[in-house]
Specification:
With 475 residues, this protein is α/β, with parallel strands linked by helices. Helices cover 41% and strands 18% of the residues. Helix 11 packs antiparallel against helix 12. The N and C termini lie far apart (70 Å).
C-alpha cells in the first residue's frame, strides 16, 4: 500500500531547488531521499505546472530496473506517474520507447544507443542522470552522446552523493551537462587553463592535473548558483557508525614474496606460476591480490598464497554471534574462497530482488557481494548493521562510500560497524590512507555547496614457524 510522502525540511529544500533551477546538480549523500525528491519534482512539473511532458531517467541498470519503479509505487502522490523500462535487447528497448509514459528508465550503457536511435528527433524535454559522476570522463562515449542532445532538453537534474570521487578535475563534464560550459569553461582545455596545472607528466603526456592556488574556492563560487549540497549529519539523526581496522600479520614468507614483487615487478611463485607487473596499475592490483591471499598468474590461473584474511573473516563472523553480515570482496577468487570457508552458513549474493527481500527479512547469514554490484540505490539497512571489507575497492572512493551506505543510511536502527581487514605494512594501509585523503577533498566540495539552515533538535616474528619459512626462501 502506498505511503503518504511528508518531506523532511531538507527534502522540501531540495524540491524547491529543483523547481527553481531548470538545470542543476543535486549533490545529496546516500540515504537522504534523492529519488523521492526527484519524483516529487517530476510529478509537480508534469501535472501541476505543465512544464514537462516526457522524462528520461538514466541510472545504473539495477537501479533503473528496480529502485525507481519501487519508489514510484511507494508514494501515494507519485503513483499516477507512468513509466516504461527501456532495458533488455534492442527489440525490447524499441518496444518500451513506443509505449506512452511520463518517465522512461534506461541504463547508462545504452545512452549512446538511445541518442543514435532518435538523432535530431529527441523527444525528452527533461533528463535526470542518477549518479552523475558516472559521466565524469569527458572522453567517454556516454558523455559525448548526452552532450549532443542537451540543447534539446529544457530541464536537467544531475544526482550524486559523490561528484568528485577522485578530485575536483572530475567536475567539468558533469557541469557541462547542466550549463554547456558556461561556468567552468566551454572546453576541457579552457577548464584546465583556468583552474588546473599539470601534475605528473612525460613530455606532452600529462598523467594527472593539480589545482591552481585558490582554484578550489573559485570553483565552488562558480558553481554554487546551480549546484546544491546537503550533509547527513547536519539534518538527520543517524546511529553512530564505527570504522574499525582488523589488522593481520602476513607470514614471513609471504612478506618476502610481497616485497620482492613490489621491488622487482616479477616473481615465480610455483613451477609454472610467474607473476609480472607491466605497469604501476598491474603491480598495484597484484599487491592487493597478495594481501587477499591468492594471485592470478599470467595464464589467469589462481595461485593460493595464504589464508590469513579468511581466518580473520572467520573470527569477525564468529564475533558477530549470529548477526547477519555483509562481506565486500574485490576479486573473483575471493568469492570462491569465502564461499568454501563458510559452507556451513547460509551464504548468498544479490542476483534478484528476492535476494534483497530475504536479506532484509533476516534470512541470510552472510551476504557476499562485490561493491560494484551493490553500490547504488539498494536499501539493505533492515537486514543488518555489520559490514566487513575483505578486500578494499582498489582506490575507488565512490564504490567504498556507496557500498557502506547500503547499511549506514536513514532507517537504520542500530549502530553500524564497518570493519576493514588490513594486512600490516602492505598496500592495504596505503589504500585506506588514500581513501581518507580523497574523502577530505569530497567533503570540502560538499561543505562549500551546503545550503544554510536552522539546526534541527538533536534527539616478522621469531616463532619456529617463521624460522622454518625463512629456510624455504631462496635468496
Amino acid at each position: 500500500m502506498a505511503s503518504e510522502f511528508v518531506p523532511h525540511i531538507y527534502q522540501q529544500t531540495s524540491i524547491n531547488w529543483v523547481m527553481d533551477h531548470p538545470k542543476s546538480g543535486l549533490f545529496l549523500p546516500m540515504g537522504m531521499g534523492k529519488t523521492s525528491v526527484t519524483l516529487t519534482a517530476i510529478h509537480d512539473l508534469i501535472y501541476d505546472y505543465f512544464k514537462v511532458s516526457k522524462v528520461l531517467i538514466v541510472a545504473p541498470i539495477r537501479v533503473a530496473d528496480s529502485t525507481w519503479p519501487s519508489e514510484i509505487h511507494k508514494w501515494r502522490h507519485t503513483q499516477d506517474l507512468t513509466f516504461s523500462k527501456v532495458l533488455g535487447t534492442s527489440k525490447q528497448r524499441v518496444q518500451a520507447l513506443m509505449q506512452e509514459a511520463d518517465i522512461y528508465l534506461i541504463n547508462r550503457e545504452n545512452v549512446v544507443w538511445l541518442v543514435d536511435y532518435y538523432r535530431s528527433d529527441w523527444p525528452f524535454d527533461m533528463v535526470v542522470v542518477d549518479e552523475l559522476s558516472s559521466f565524469k570522463n569527458p572522453a567517454s562515449k556516454r558523455f559525448k552522446a548526452l552532450k549532443k542532445v542537451m540543447p534539446l532538453v529544457d530541464r536537467f537534474i544531475g544526482l550524486t552523493g559523490t561528484p568528485t570521487p577522485k578530485g575536483l578535475p572530475d567536475l567539468w563534464s558533469q557541469l557541462y551537462l547542466m550549463d554547456a560550459g558556461e561556468r567552468l569553461g566551454k572546453t576541457l582545455t579552457i577548464f584546465r587553463n583556468r583552474y588546473l596545472v599539470p601534475g605528473r607528466r612525460n613530455g606532452m603526456v600529462v598523467y594527472d592535473w593539480l589545482l591552481q592556488p585558490n582554484a578550489e574556492r573559485r570553483i565552488y563560487d562558480d558553481i554554487s548558483d546551480i549546484c546544491m549540497s546537503l550533509k547527513v549529519e547536519d539534518w538527520l539523526e543517524v546511529p553512530e557508525c564505527q570504522y574499525l581496522n582488523y589488522e593481520i600479520e602476513l607470514p614471513i614468507k609471504v612478506k618476502y614474496q610481497y616485497r620482492r614483487f613490489k621491488n622487482e615487478k616479477i616473481i615465480e611463485l610455483s613451477d609454472n606460476g610467474v607473476i609480472t607487473g607491466a605497469n604501476a596499475g598491474v603491480v598495484t592490483n597484484k599487491l592487493l591480490q597478495f594481501t587477499a591471499g591468492a594471485v592470478y598468474d599470467e595464464n589467469y590461473e589462481v595461485i593460493q598464497i595464504h589464508d590469513c584474511k579468511l581466518d580473520a573473516l572467520e573470527d569477525l563472523v564468529e564475533a558477530a554471534n549470529g548477526q547477519p553480515v555483509i562481506v565486500y570482496y574485490y576479486f573473483k577468487f575471493d568469492y570462491g574462497r569465502i564461499l568454501k570457508r563458510f559452507a556451513n552458513l547460509n551464504v548468498r549474493t544479490i542476483k534478484t530482488p528476492q535476494d534483497v527481500e530475504d536479506w532484509n527479512a533476516g534470512k541470510i547469514d552472510l551476504l557476499l557481494v562485490h561493491p560494484a554490484s551493490v553500490g547504488h540505490g539498494l536499501n539493505l539497512q533492515d537486514g543488518g548493521s555489520i559490514i566487513i571489507w575483505y578486500t578494499l575497492p582498489n582506490w575507488n572512493l565512490e564504490l567504498y562510500q556507496q557500498a557502506n551506505a547500503r547499511l549506514n543510511r536513514q532507517g537504520q536502527k542500530e549502530s553500524v560497524r564497518i570493519y576493514h581487514i588490513i594486512a600490516k605494512d602492505t598496500i592495504d594501509e596505503d589504500m585506506l590512507k588514500s581513501l581518507d585523503k580523497k574523502d577530505v577533498s569530497q567533503n570540502a566540495l560538499m561543505e562549500a555547496l551546503k545550503i544554510s539552515h536552522v539546526p534541527l533538535p538533536s534527539s616478522i616474528g621469531k616463532t619456529e614457524h617463521d624460522k622454518k619459512a625463512l629456510k624455504e626462501i631462496t635468496l
